[in-house]
Write a structure and sequence with these properties.
The protein is 28% helix and 23% strand. It is an alpha+beta fold.
Length: 100
């Protein structure tokens, strides 16, 4: 199996009991997964996209993390996702959205 170039993690606020109930989920983060997957495919980016349990930075959500770059983005919405993916294609980060 070939390892993808990037893994994009989208916080979906799952808690220990398994219920998605936090800020990121309430802000529609679950809908980002399909959007990001389709955008990456259209751009020819080799990416795996998945949701996560709570990443514990709710005050800055919705949160998206790109590995192996270790880019943590906060306040993500579809417009910001487009900018973030544009930068990823160029091998850069969108500094103004980084939270870590």
């Amino acid at each position: 199996m070939k390892r993808p170039d990037f893994m994009i993690l989208v916080c979906n606020s799952y808690r220990v009991a398994g219920d998605a109930q936090g800020f990121c989920n309430k802000q529609g983060a679950s809908s980002f997964v399909q959007y990001i997957s389709e955008e990456c495919s259209d751009r020819g980016l080799d990416v795996v996209v998945t949701t996560t349990a709570c990443l514990s930075v709710c005050s800055q959500g919705p949160v998206m993390v790109i590995q192996p770059n270790n880019y943590w983005y906060g306040g993500v919405d579809k417009d910001k996702i487009d900018e973030i993916l544009d930068a990823l294609e160029e091998g850069k980060a969108v500094e103004e959205y980084l939270i870590a």
